[in-house]
Amino acid sequence: MKAASDNLTPCILELGGKDCAIIRHDANLSHALPIIMRGTFQNAGQNCVGLERILVHESLYNEFVDRVTDQIKKMKVGSVLNDDIVVDVGAMTMSGQGERLQNLIQASVSEGAKLILGGRPYIHPKYPTAQYFEPTLLIDVTPQMTILKQELFAPIMVVMKFSTDEEAIEICNKSLYGLGNSVFSGDQSKGDWMSKRLRCGMVNVNDFGATYLNNLPFGGVGISGFGRFGGIEGLRSLCLMKSVTTDRIPFFKTSIPRVLDYPMHSNGSSFVSNLVILLYDNSLIDKIKAITGLIKNSSS
């Protein structure tokens, strides 16, 4: 962006996110769970729109935690190249992340969160220097904790509890990031209502990642960037717009009224005032008076 500014080159920034999944009290957990697992752990959590904050209504919280605990326990870490297992979580793409993530998790625990699973780098027996991190489940996270202020980009499920829709929206919107979010609800109208109040560039109702469709504008707000790619808006962002006007009717051309031609006539300002009234005033009587004024100013 700094380099682009040197020559005033337009640019689009699609940066990171701290996306939420909100599970309302009326959500179908059996439907939502597989989608949330995919949204959190796909590509070892290394997705710009990966789910980094899972907000669960208090009435479903314990059931959700129990069910995801059972699933995450079964996940396997390794290399798809040489390991003789079906791998769920592969390597991290950036070096030095293990220590950073472990420190964030430990800080959250000291702040009151509970670490249920994982929370540390995984040492691969064949590739001890490779960058792996255990699938992690961190629960009872609260809005003020340090881990919510940084993008994780890792296989870490962070679970929070909420009581009302308004509270969930407030938690989501508190982040400086604003890329995408998901809302899970048995009431479509409530999902739509919440989506309109979330400060972000994209929302999936009862889904995750559907906004990847290439006919939709993709991008965020806040420190998640600006501009859009994908869809008509994305194509337009790659173009420099030019406005061109021509006469639709060749023999009907622009003509400057004599009263407005240079050198200006003394009645010019009165003519313009009447023209504005004629075009924009709501009163029919005033419009008629303006027409009279235009005729008078034009002829004098």
UniProtKB/TrEMBL annotation:
Keywords: Oxidoreductase. The keyword Oxidoreductase applies. SUPFAM superfamilies: ALDH-like. Residues 1-244 form the Aldehyde dehydrogenase domain. GO terms for molecular function: oxidoreductase activity, acting on the aldehyde or oxo group of donors, NAD or NADP as acceptor. Signal peptide: none annotated. Belongs to the aldehyde dehydrogenase family. This is Msc7p.
